[in-house]
Design a protein that fits this description.
Number of strands: 7
Strand content: 35-45%
Number of helices: 3
Helix content: 25-40%
Distance between the termini: 52 Å
Shape: elongated
Order of helices and strands: EHEEHEEEEH
Strand order of the largest sheet: 1-7-6-5-4-3-2
Radius of gyration: 18 Å
Largest sheet: 7 strands, antiparallel
Structural class: alpha+beta
Length: 183
């Protein structure tokens, strides 16, 4: 099993960052994300928690030796994401796992966005944990290394994509306020 953790701080409030999360796809920086479909959404009024289940469909290049197993250089992969937005604690947590090729590998990801306690109106902390486990005895370690490398590359691009959406949301908010003559 290979593990990877990424941490980042966005210089925007939690509300702007979590709004951007829902608008992240489609995105020109992440063409490997084919679709994101909401399967279920529930609101717990008492706890002030929104729980969402989404099916994320990806198409991505994979190492040549792995492609031979699948018969294609860009197999379609499905991931299940279950997320909760807790308005009381200002925490967004999403847990994703692959549904495709689970007999060969298991890829789990947890992301958390929390308001920075030292400046909750200005910054949002982001923590991303990934765990990859391959069951192919001879090539398992190589596959895990390749998947973690791909994960790191995609994580960097994903942060950039989200930053673009945050900037757009902030700009739209400023333009909207100027249009209303509030600013």
């Amino acid at each position: 099993m290979k593990l990877h953790t990424t941490e980042h701080t966005y210089s925007h409030p939690w509300s702007a960052v979590t709004t951007a999360v829902w608008q992240k796809y489609p995105n020109e920086r992440t063409p490997h994300v084919v679709t994101v479909d909401v399967l279920r959404r529930d609101v717990d009024q008492e706890r002030k928690v929104l729980r969402t289940e989404r099916l994320i469909t990806l198409r991505q290049n994979i190492p040549a030796f792995i492609a031979r197993f699948f018969g294609a250089p860009q197999p379609v992969c499905h991931f299940l994401e279950v997320s909760e937005i807790d308005l009381t604690t200002q925490t967004y947590t999403a847990i994703s796992t692959n549904l495709t090729f689970r007999d060969l590998m298991v890829m789990d990801e947890t992301v958390r966005y929390t308001a920075d306690p030292s400046a909750p109106q200005l910054r949002t902390r982001f923590v991303q944990d990934a765990a990859v486990s391959a069951s192919m005895s001879r090539f398992g370690s190589y596959l895990e290394d390749a998947l973690i490398k791909r994960f790191k590359d995609n994580a960097h691009v994903g942060r950039q994509a989200l930053a673009d959406v945050i900037d757009r949301i902030v700009l739209e908010g400023k333009v909207g306020l100027q249009h209303l003559h509030i600013v």
